[in-house]
Amino acid sequence: MTAKLTTLAKRLLWPALFSAAFAIFFYLTFPGEQLARRLESEARAQGVELSIGDLKPWRLSGLAAKQVEVKPPAIATSSNEPVHILLDEVDARVNLLPLLWLHTNVDVSVFVWNGKATGTFSTTKELSALSLDVTDLDLVQAAPLRQLSGLELAGKISGKLKLSMDAKKGIPSATGRVDAKVAGGAITGGAIYGFPLKLAVGNVEAAMAIGNGDAKLEKLVTKGGDLESEGDGVLHIRPMLALSQLDAKIRFRPAQTWLDANPLAKAGMSMIASAREPDGFYSYRVAGSLSAPVPRPGK
User: Which of 129, 247, 253, 261 is the most exposed place for a label (fewest CB within 10 A)?
Assistant: First the structure.
């Protein structure tokens, strides 16, 4: 019995040593620098500026990139500065087993804004699907949102996204759902239409269902801060997302204590008196293309 175990151990030892040696050799000689530059070049060809600080193999069939900076094509911002997104780390791994059925399945983890986003992207000849879980992204660290809105934001956002679409029809065929929450949301600085603004938003909950060419906002509620708000609406999705048509309604009511502490904002509310309803809420309908929505007072 002992002889058989010894023989079996010898047969397993050499393959194990070879595999370990190969893994070490592969890791030490991996051309991370060259591959990073190639990825940056490919992104540049698509109009996106990409910078990768470090690139290494991850879990045999994956890559781990650190100090990643992304600059998408020109987007108008309040400061006229180019938007740039800094990612602490991006890990991506191709699952090998689905390849036997000609399916692509990629697991992705992104560490950004002191939080984490994990997800899976899969494709077949007929269908593309994405699932994503977001945990505790710190809005204080969200420089792109600050650039786009001109506001200093606070709070932590978490949520889930599930999306699938016909591989040939693209975005208009998308179906899925988005659920998101913001804990301790606040606007800590900045201005809207020239009015300085500081506001405790509190907790925010949002839910959206996607299907039949529409994205329906089922829920948008803020509670526990200086502002109560609620909203709903629908986005009629077009192949060019910027041309998608929005039809939404939002109602909001600032707390009286906040208005008393901010006389400039209180005076500014008189400028939108036409939107005030009997219950003290201000109501606006927002319509038009996604790239240029137009708000109008009233239901």
Answer: 261
